[in-house]
């Protein structure tokens, strides 16, 4: 059984009807085609929580690769012969208010504001998605927000956790030099985390507008106008974090890495992510390959945002109503350089 009421105030019991519940979602219906439309979601089960959304955060890099049909799930690229990955409910992160809880759920109450990762959907290429309201979400994909917290600060929590994870992975000593490849959100949060740990951080990007969001004293370098030899001259790098999947950039940076340094590879490489271990061995470079999230890292990221040193909402450049999702994606696709954090408002 399901406790308390649905969003309309009626009781929610999985066995009451054979029909799925109705919801609205951001759906990728084909390559580069986006619709805000009515979808079906399964009746909640005993281990599910029903959430009414307030905000969801678009993960531009990951969601763009789904929108282009380049991947079918997680780190799995689309290959010729695979089923085309459409239609699919985009995304994997949002905040909202608990409206009902399953009978086996403990630790949550109706009315609490929470973060939710992926939620259940019906009739799609994948049975899970992010931008869907109401959201029928397994309890292990939900975290409470701190009391009085702004939900916008946490609605991109999975992606924030990726950047946090990139910055926490390598061993680091106070004053070590670190380079982050990529000026997107993961690069921004990886750089913030490395700075918090005491590193001297340089971010290599291609967009002056994005680099301008880096907090002092992080150094931003536009590689369109400044060569790597000039940007890294005289540096002995302890850490290199690649957030965009650019092995060519890593190979160009590798000569500047010192002995016993660390390479963190977090960008989506499709089928091109080949590393010759022998080229790492001479410098004893440790390779880290973070992916996805863990409950422990999600909790640590919530704490970092709450403590104030991991900044999220200052990186929001665009806000759209949820029903304007197609317009949001037109802006992202036509002006990616100006987009950093893009949030959908479901209130």
TrEMBL record:
Domain named Alcohol dehydrogenase-like N-terminal: residues: 76-146
Alphabetized PANTHER family for the sequence: ZINC-TYPE ALCOHOL DEHYDROGENASE-LIKE PROTEIN C1198.01, ZINC-TYPE ALCOHOL DEHYDROGENASE-LIKE PROTEIN C1198.01-RELATED
Domain of life assignment: Bacteria
Record's keyword terms, sorted: Oxidoreductase
SUPFAM superfamilies: GroES-like (SSF50129), NAD(P)-binding Rossmann-fold domains (SSF51735)
Entry coiled-coil feature ranges: none
Name this protein carries in UniProt: Zinc-binding dehydrogenase
